[in-house]
Amino acid sequence: MQHYGHKIGQTARVFSKTLNGIMSPMGLYSSQWSIILCLHYRSSLTQVQLSNYLNVEAPTITRTLTRLEEMGWIIRSEGDDKRERYVSLSPAAIERFPEWLQAARDLEDVALRDLDESELAVFNRVLKKMTENLNTIA
């Protein structure tokens, strides 16, 4: 019997653990990297938008953002609504981003080694469909 959910979880844990080993000497962990990557491509988001996009509980996002702010990688500012906080990358994070991105891409290259374009296309379709299926439950 196949246990696809278990295999997905195990692969994600191995990838995350390896990424942590690569990124931690550069001052980041994989959970922090996902936030920085998201902010790089989306510029500025509210904490709620980040939480929803990354599918992470609000208290977890708040703790991680507090740590990133203490490290000088993000800036939080008030929105129009006093309860709303916007998050963006700091100049220091913008400067370091290319180094972090290269490290993440290098790991992806290792993980995807020996997969051809057709396999990657199937991989992307399967992940997309699985996410869509799971979102019908949530």
UniProtKB/TrEMBL annotation:
- Entry keyword annotation includes Transcription regulation: yes
Keyword Signal on entry: no
Which regions span the lipid bilayer? none
SMART domains membership = HTH_MARR
A family per Pfam: MarR
What the entry lists under SUPFAM superfamilies is as follows: Winged helix' DNA-binding domain
Q: Which GO terms describe its molecular function?
A: DNA binding; DNA-binding transcription factor activity
Question: Keywords on this record?
Answer: DNA-binding, Transcription, Transcription regulation
What is the official name of this protein in its record?
MarR family transcriptional regulator
